[in-house]
Amino acid sequence: MTSLLVIIVLVLLSVAIWQMTKIFDLTQVGNKKDNSQVATDNDNNIQGYLMFGFLAFLYIFTIFGLLKWGHLVLSNPASEHGSDYDNLMMISFAIIFFVQAITQALLHYFAYKYRGKQGNTALYFADNDKLEFIWTIIPVIVLAGLILYGLYTWTNIMFVDEDEDVMVVELYAKQFNWEARYSGADNVLGKANVRLIEGVNTMGVDMTDPNAQDDISTTELHLPKGKKILFKLRSQDVLHSAYMPHFRAQMNCVPGMVTQFAFKPIYTTDEMRQDEKMVEKVSTINKIRAKKTAELAAQGKPGLDPYTFDYLLLCNKICGASHYNMQMKIVVDTPQDFQNWLKGKGTIAKAVNDDKAAKAAQNAPVSVPAPAKKPDTTVVATAEATVVSK
Ligand SMILES: [Cu+2]
């Protein structure tokens, strides 16, 4: 409501200023020698100089932005391929900055040089093959180089060696959270289908598949340092995107198909917390939080907890109302800590069986026949059918 009022006030203010300038123009009618709408040399000179003003604004804002916000970019990638990815981005940025610095200067300089002048006529200039060849061939070479380098980097990142010892983990996206499934000792994920989702089997794992028997589902993603992880990605409902910025990894999760991405984590969560740049970033965040806490305390409200760094899996596709909060904590452990963590987790098969047993126990009294009578086979059969269908 407040923003609507602000917008209305701003619109009314602009109308008022516009009307005032018209009144001012009317008061000047008698004084002006030239009241035509055709630009004079003086007007064109002003426009020409304004071109340089705009050019200066572009350069100053770019440099200011880099100095003020440049430190906000993520540093030190936490995956093996991360530095290749960062190099590709830095080279692309360097080329873009270099080319834009030159072309913008030329564009604005020529706009100034060939500004309108009284009596000037346009020169008819058909073409110049040499000039056209130069301005075509240079971008062709630069872009082809960049594209080839990009393809080479992408292929390297996406390549998963069949013989390499990778750990298969599934990430299951749904509105609005994530689940992870570890493939267990056989390192093969059991089949899964959205139609099989029922009760505790929240990922729709096919419990008749032998490969599914040792699968483990978790709501926190733990990864062992130094081991290549092959992520298999699925979605339960709409398009999501698994985004792990610190590992420079992102892949869409598409309903009805399995996508994949692999990377090797190279720093544990603890190591990343001690990284110089990360320490700096965390202390900046905590300074902001401390300031906010002081403000909240003044209003008698509880303050904010200090921030501690954690890797995150985020959703990077706008998938609905709570998309902004669709995240899962990632912990990179040492291989030993990872094994200890995983050991404590029960399999999905066990959870499903326990659930079945609990439900069967609840239904059991119904199926117990009265001792004196002949066993009522229809009731037993119905109870069995109920258990089977679960
Ligand atoms: Cu999402």
Structure described in brief:
This protein has 9 helices and 10 strands. The strands form 2 sheets. A 5-stranded mixed β-sheet has the order 3-2-1-5-8, with no helix packed on it. The protein has a 5-stranded mixed β-sheet with strand order 4-10-9-6-7.
The main pleated sheet reads as: 5 strands, mixed
Distance between the termini: 51 Å
User: Which ligands accompany this protein?
Assistant: copper (II) ion
- For this structure, what is the CATH homologous superfamily of the domain at 167-272 and 309-346? Cupredoxins -  blue copper proteins
CATH architecture of the domain at 167-272 and 309-346: Sandwich
Shape: elongated
**Rg, Cα atoms, Å:** 33 Å
Describe what you observe in this structure:
- With 390 residues, this protein is of the alpha+beta class.
- Among the domains are: 144 residues, Immunoglobulin-like (Sandwich); 40 residues, no CATH class.
- The protein is 48% helix and 14% strand.
- It is built from nine helices and ten strands.
- The strands form two sheets. Strands 3-2-1-5-8 form a five-stranded mixed beta sheet, with no helix packed on it. Strands 4-10-9-6-7 form a five-stranded mixed beta sheet.
- Helix 8 packs antiparallel against helix 9.
- The longest helix is centred in the N-terminal third of the chain and has 32 residues.
- Bound molecules: copper (II) ion.
- The site of copper (II) ion has 7 residues, from loops.
